[in-house]
C-alpha cells in the first residue's frame, strides 16, 4: 500500500510540474538560464539515474560518447537534463527486451563552440507511422493503453519546446516493433578539448567494456566469405555506431540482399539487427573491414 501511495504521489507531482511548464511555454514566459556545465560528469549523473531501473527490467543501458566531446558547455543545465531524462524514461518504459542507448557525438567543433548531437535509441515497441505526427502534441499518448497511464502526455511536447528554445528541433524515427530513435543537434559555447579522460567510468561503461571483451568475440569462421565493398562496410559501421539500426537494416535490404553473393553477409547483419545486438554488430563490422596500415 505504501508503494502505491508513493507512486501515486510521484505521478501527481510530475503531472503538476509538467502542467506548470507547458503553461509557461504557452504564455511565452519560459526563459533559459545558461550556466557552465561539466559535461562528462553531467552525462554520467544522468546515466546513473536510470541504472537500477534498467537492471530491474532486465534490459541493457549503454552509453556511447565521442572522445572529442568538450569538457565544458554553456547551457541551461536543468532543461537539458529534463529533455534527456524524459527521452530516456520513455525509452525504458517502452522497452521490455534488448537495450536503451544514450549517445552523444560532436557534429561540428570550433574554437569556442561545438554542435553536439544528443540521441536516445531503444529496441522497444516502436511507434506506428500514423502516430508519429501526434507524439509532440500536448496530452496526446499513443501506443499500448496499459503504458499510457504511466505518463502525463506532456513530456514530449515540453521536450520539443525546450529543444526549440535552444535553437534546435527534436526529431524521431521509429518503426512499429523495431524500436525508436530520438535526437537533437544543438550548438553551444564550449571549452576544453575532449580526451580519453572524458569517458564515463561508471558501472554502465564497465559493463559495456566487459561485454565487448568477454562475450562478443568474433571468430574467423563467423565472418562471411564474401563481403561488400569497403565503403559500404564503413557506411554500415557508421550507422551502427550512431545507433541508427533502422537505417542500417534498410541499407542492407535495399543494397545488399538482391546480390546472391552477399546473401550470407546480409543474413548475418540482419540477424544481429533483429536481435538488437548492437555491440556484436559493431564488432563484426569492424572485423570485416581491412586493417588500416
Describe this structure in words.
The chain has helices at residues 2-26, 39-57, 77-93, 145-148, 155-165, 203-215, 230-241, 245-255, 263-274, 278-288, and strands at 35-38, 60-65, 72-75, 99-109, 113-122, 171-174, 180-191. The protein is an alpha+beta fold. Helix 7 runs antiparallel to helix 10 (278-288).
Top keywords for this entry?
293 residues, alpha+beta, seven-stranded mixed β-sheet, 10 helices
Number of strands: 7
Low-confidence stretches: 10-15, 195-218
**Percent helix among the residues?**
40-55%
The outline comes out as globular
Tell me the Rg in angstroms.
20 Å
Sheet/helix structural class: alpha+beta
- Order of H and E elements: HEHEEHEEHHEEHHHHH
Number of helices: 10
Please give the largest β-sheet. Answer: 7 strands, mixed
Report the average pLDDT across residues: 75
Strand percent estimate: 15-25%
What is the first-to-last residue Cα distance?
Answer: 64 Å
Write the SSE topology.
Blueprint: H1 2-26, E1 35-38, H2 39-57, E2 60-65, E3 72-75, H3 77-93, E4 99-109, E5 113-122, H4 145-148, H5 155-165, E6 171-174, E7 180-191, H6 203-215, H7 230-241, H8 245-255, H9 263-274, H10 278-288
Helix pairs in contact: 1-5, 2-3, 3-5, 7-8, 7-10, 8-9
Amino acid at each position: 500500500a505504501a508503494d502505491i501511495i508513493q507512486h501515486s504521489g510521484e505521478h501527481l507531482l510530475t503531472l503538476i510540474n509538467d502542467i506548470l511548464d507547458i503553461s509557461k511555454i504557452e504564455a511565452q514566459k519560459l526563459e533559459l538560464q545558461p550556466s557552465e556545465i561539466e559535461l562528462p560528469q553531467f552525462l554520467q549523473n544522468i546515466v546513473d539515474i536510470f541504472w537500477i531501473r534498467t537492471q530491474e527490467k532486465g534490459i541493457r543501458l549503454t552509453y556511447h560518447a565521442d572522445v572529442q566531446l568538450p569538457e565544458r558547455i554553456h547551457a541551461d543545465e536543468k532543461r537539458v537534463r529534463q529533455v534527456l531524462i524524459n527521452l530516456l524514461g520513455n525509452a525504458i518504459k517502452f522497452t521490455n527486451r534488448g537495450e536503451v542507448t544514450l549517445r552523444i557525438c560532436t557534429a561540428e567543433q570550433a574554437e569556442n563552440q561545438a554542435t553536439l548531437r544528443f540521441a536516445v535509441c531503444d529496441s522497444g515497441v516502436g511507434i506506428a507511422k500514423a502516430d508519429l505526427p501526434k507524439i509532440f502534441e500536448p496530452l496526446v499518448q499513443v501506443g499500448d493503453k496499459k503504458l499510457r497511464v504511466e505518463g502525463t502526455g506532456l513530456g514530449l511536447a515540453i521536450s520539443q519546446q525546450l529543444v526549440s528554445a535552444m535553437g534546435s528541433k527534436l526529431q524521431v524515427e521509429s518503426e512499429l516493433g523495431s524500436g525508436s530513435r530520438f535526437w537533437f543537434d544543438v550548438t553551444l559555447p564550449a571549452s576544453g578539448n575532449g580526451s580519453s579522460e572524458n569517458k564515463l567510468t561508471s558501472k554502465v561503461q564497465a559493463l559495456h567494456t566487459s561485454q565487448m571483451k568477454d562475450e562478443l568475440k568474433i571468430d574467423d569462421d563467423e565472418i562471411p566469405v564474401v563481403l561488400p565493398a569497403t565503403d559500404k562496410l564503413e557506411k554500415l559501421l557508421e550507422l551502427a555506431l550512431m545507433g541508427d539500426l533502422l537505417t542500417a537494416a534498410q541499407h542492407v535490404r535495399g543494397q545488399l540482399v538482391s546480390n546472391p553473393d552477399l546473401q550470407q553477409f546480409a543474413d548475418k547483419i540482419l540477424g544481429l539487427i533483429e536481435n538488437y545486438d548492437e555491440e556484436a554488430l559493431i564488432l563484426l563490422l569492424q572485423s570485416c573491414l581491412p586493417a588500416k596500415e
